Structure formats: C-alpha cells, structure tokens
Description:
Elements: H1 16-23, H2 27-34, H3 42-54, H4 61-70, E1 73-79, H5 84-99, E2 103-109, H6 115-126, E3 130-134, E4 137-138, H7 142-145, E5 152-155, E6 158-159, E7 169-172, H8 174-187, E8 193-197, H9 205-219, E9 229-231, H10 241-254, E10 259-262, H11 265-277, E11 287-289, H12 295-299, E12 306-308, H13 311-326, E13 334-337, E14 340-342
Parallel strand pairs: 1-2, 1-3, 3-5, 4-6, 5-7, 7-13, 8-9, 8-10, 10-11
Antiparallel strand pairs: 12-14
Helix pairs in contact: 1-2, 1-3, 2-3, 5-13, 8-9, 10-11
Amino acid sequence: MEGFPEKGIKMGNMTIKDIAKKCGVGVSTVSRAMNNHPDINPKTKELIMKTIEEFNYVPNNSARNLKRIQSKAIAVLVKGIGNTFFSDIVSGLERECQKKNYSCILQHVEEQEDELDIALHIIKEKKLQGLIFLGGSFSHPKEKMEQLEVPYVLSTIRTAGENCEQYAAVSVDDFKESYKMTEYLLQLGHERIAILTAPKEDESIGKLRLMGYAQALKDKKIPVQEELIGYMDAKKDRYSFQTGYKLTKELLKKTDFTALYATSDTLAIGACRALKEAGISVPDECSVAGFDGMEAGEFYIPSITTIRQPVEKIAKATAELLFDMIKGKEVPRQLVFEGELLERESTAFSSCHESVK
C-alpha cells in the first residue's frame, strides 16, 4: 500500500479512479466488477472487490441512481439494415423494451465501419444501460471489448476469435440450417444448384451459409463449382430484391442450373423475377429457395420455400438476456434456436435432371 492514498486522499474519500489506479486497471473494469458484469476475469474482479473493501470505497449512490433514471435506454447497432429480416428483429426488440419501459435507440452501422468504435461513442453520448449488436461478424480483441462499460448481447452474429464463447449471443445455426436447405434441394433430384451469397471476403453469417451449402454438396460427392456461386459486391450490393435480380441474370449468362438457393428471401424474390424475364418457369424449370422466412416470401407468386428463423423468439431472448445482465444476473452464454424449413410453391422435383440455360 506504499505511496497510497495520494494527495491527501482519505480512506473513506476515494474515487473510482483511485481504485482503478491501485488495482492497475481501467475505470471501466472497476465499474464492471461493481456491477457484476460477466465479462471480467474472476481474479481481477476479486482484486478490485478486495481493494474496495480495504479502502472503504463507497460509490456516490445518488449520482449513480440519477444516471440510471436519466439513461433508461439501450441501443441496437445494426449491420445490414437493408435486409428486411433485421427490420423484423428490431421491431421485436422495440416491443420488448416498451414492456420494460426502456427506450430503444437504433443505430445503423455501415459494413466498412467498426461497430465497437460506434458503440463506445454512443455509450458516452446517450449514457446507455446496455447494447445489442445485430448482424455482421464479431472478432474484436479482448482489450477493446473491455472498454465497453455496459452489458451487451450479440444477436444473429457470427462470432470469431478465442473469446467468442464468452459473449452472450442469440442466433440460429446458420451452417446447419443452410446445410438443411441444400440437402432438401438435393433430395428433390437437383445436382446443379446455384447459390446467391455474401461477398467473397465476408466473415459473417453469409460465410456460414455458403459453408453449409458446400458441405451438403461434398457429402453427396458433388463438386462445388465456382461458376454456380453468385457473390455479392461488398461495395455495391445489399441483401435486396435488386441484388438477387442482378446476380441471377449474371449467372444465367455464364452457366446452367436446375435450382437456385438464395441466402436470403429478398435475394430469392429478385432471382424469381430474373428467371421469369428469361422465360424460365419457377418451379417447373428451376426451383428457387430462400432463407429467413420473411412475410413477403409467403405472399409472392410463387410463394418462396425458405428456412424460417424464429424472429419473435430471437428478439425476446435477446432482450431478456440483456435485461438480466443489466440486473446483474447470471445468464447463459449462447442461445441457439432451430430454424424451420417451409416447403412452398417455388420448389419441385427436378424434371429429368435437365438444366436451364
């Protein structure tokens, strides 16, 4: 304890900065320890709590309570806002926040932007109680994650890195569900199955869906052919009807296929339009399948065969995890929901294995 307290600081008058300095950690780490945040090393937490007890540190409860009153809000940071599936998730999160009398701040994050930098800024600006990261991938270094002073949950995000299992996360198994859809098309007799997917450099759920497609083909001893893969352009394309339309027209110019699997329903609907303009009947001459289970796919003609994600369950579980963490409760690290394959009008058995051109 040599050299401390400093500058005349008395045992009972220490600040959170003094505690942080004594323990050799940042103020945010002390805050997480005091608020029972799960993302903190147990030994570090023990040291901090022991130091707090030793120096009789008492937080300014009136200030802390005032901050809570003023900041009864959470933020949802969304990568891929153009995908209507995320719009459905956000709507569900907003309903759950309303039930808890919390406000929900929506923040769009461009693909090239660092969501963590934006999160750190918005926490200071809005004095948030918690954060939800929605969409994209997550592979930030642990040191940077520790700068977050509030609880956070990852929803429908691909996590990577050595600490990914420590995050509180909610999703479906995108690899498994994509495998399921590809296997279904194979069972219909299709072997030349085209796919519309994320950019080549993508590290998010789009990559997992492409990997599921590839593995299903390999398990049936069918080679994965690059000419059957329609990659989105990272700088220009989004998960939209227009992108599905454009990618399908490009595929039709260079190869033939009897089925097309689009890794989102928006892409699938755009693909159907391109096929119709090319004089190709869906599903008689080419089956089309999507992913997500968006409402528009049900009412499109033909209705889109898809993997339906349980949107309401995902939104509810995400919000409940976050609110439990705000209360300091222990929560499960990973919640994985099952998708549902909905067989609709856009898929059919391959007729004589003839390909479309």
